[in-house]
Amino acid sequence: xxxxxxxxxxxxxxxxxxxxxxxxxxxxxxxxxxxxxxxxxxxxxxxxxxxxxxxxxxxxxxxxxxxxxxxxxxxxxxxxxxxxxxxxxxxxxxxxxxxxxxxxxxxxxxxxxxxxxxxxxxxxxxxxxxxxxxxxxxxxxxxxxxxxxxxxxxxxxxxxxxxxxxxxxxxxxxxxxxxxxxxxxxxxxxxxxxxxxxxxxxxxxxxxxxxxxxxxxxxxxxxxxxxxxxxxxxxxxxxxxxxxxxxxxxxxxxxxxxxxxxxxxxxxxxxxxxxxxxxxxxxxxxxxxxxxxxxxxxxxxxxxxxxxxxxxxxxxxxxxxxxxxxxxxxxxxxxxxxxxxxxxxxxxxxxxxxxxxxxxxxxxxxxxxxxxxxxxxxxxxxxxxxxxxxxxxxxxxxxxxxxxxxxxxxxxxxxxxxxxxxxxxxxxxxxxxxxxxxxxxxxxxxxxxxxxxxxxxxxxxxxxxxxxxxxxxxxxxxxxxxxxxxxxxxxxxxxxxxxxxxxxxxxxxxxxxxxxxxxxxxxxxxxxxxxxxxxxxxxxxxxxxxxxxxxxxxxxxxxxxxxxxxxxxxxxxxxxxxxxxxxxxxxxxxxxxxxxxxxxxxxxxxxxxxxxxxxxxxxxxxxxxxxxxxxxxxxxxxxxxxxxxxxxxxxxxxxxxxxxxxxxxx
Length: 666
Prior knowledge:
The protein is an all-alpha fold. Helix content is 73%, strand content 0%. It has helices at residues 3-16, 20-34, 38-48, 66-84, 90-106, 112-127, 135-147, 152-170, 181-192, 199-219, 234-242, 249-262, 266-271, 274-288, 291-307, 309-313, 317-331, 338-355, 362-386, 391-395, 405-425, 427-434, 448-460, 462-467, 475-485, 495-509, 511-514, 521-532, 538-551, 553-556, 559-570, 572-575, 579-593, 599-622, 627-630, 633-665. 38% of the residues are buried.
């Protein structure tokens, strides 16, 4: 049995045999075969012969699949060239080049995966032969010959597609690939202008042209073209026209995005086409709710604007049109948040550019802010709308409801931009857009989705607002606190728990302001105490309680407020909070108790807290030693964890008692 037959059998066993031991044996044999010099002859013979030798047997073996064997041959040739191609003699390399070109011609009509593997092997051969003359020039000469043959253009297109990809992947800068840019672009233009009888063939060829152009754009081919000829370059027109063809839209977008991000001077050229993008493509897509087109255009226009924010800041007709188009993309009510999210980098770069204008450009900055004020004001409205939860989350009444992953990711990316918008609009105007009053009116249905989103935004910009000393009417927040305090615990579920959490975040972020209002301390403490008991809001409420105790300690010393704190501390044993949340609560209470000046009151409060700690530890001592608990690992683990937490609280609270005793002794 010759080697071709053995290779075919091994490939068949590897791909189809039901016995794993047979597949392992076949794989081992093929791996060993790849280490031999026979690979060169066998693999090239498989790829260049019209029929495999084993297929000429009568009857042919039933297991034989030419495609599987040929694909394997192309793969091992590529790997062999990559690993050993540098050591081949020049004559052997020439023969191998000719054999691969024959194979490329043979499979130019398919299968496409096999043609790609052959072209990858060709590219690898070219890159490992740089020390011998000019292999790239030799390849292009051979491609011209191949181009003149029937269906040869398909093989040439594939070869020209994978070659720059291999050059970029291997970071090979010595092959002078871009010196052939004029010939390649001329060939691509010729292919793009061909008209085929079959629509499917035409669209497929155009996709191949776009894919090839994308490879060369990524390699930097347009840097070889005079800048003044770019706006009217016929291939650029071909790419823009391809945007109107559904089958080629995605590749055309990729080409244009790559041009915008990687070629200096092209963003301005692309910006001049924004009217076409908006009026011809985007408006129609928004009307028909074509999310694929909207998403692609959103990415492209964002890339154009991000590459040249100065052009947008100039507030030219094209710049404002691009900003308006992207506002439409942000506001589009898609099923997820990816479209709006894809624009955030552009808006952030634009805002940062305006805010970063130096003192010498202060006048220009003021002009830019004035010109784009309405844009960023509208952007804030659109972002607040898109940052709302979807309807399924809003109506979900389960105990474990939370923000969808897509929305959580979108909001995380939104944080920096909201801070920039707040700086541009100024905190006073920003807060005015968040709160309009009337939420607590009995005649108005509260838009809870809108409320929760605006609470999120208010929390995000808290540091900036506090720095600017911009005080807003906190009564709006207290109205919400009052509403939630009146909701029975069994009614607080689903999305309302998320609103509760967002409200607690705001309370914690603005605790410094709250400390100036003595009358609202008790309602806030009760609100936080109730929220600590709920899994969805416990972390936010515990954190807010600690911040509140840090910043408003003077108003918490009131007996009624201290009593609320005691109630929270004594209930820790029953609540079984996450350890992180419990640490926040213990820290908050300890902070207040440590500052109580009345020794008798302090002793009394500490005794109450330590008593609850003793109870948790006592359960372990009294009940944990019994046989019933030892035979129930789950119950024993629970009581052990409870005792550990009780001991932790005892240490924290007891620390202040010890300090007090030492102080009394002195």
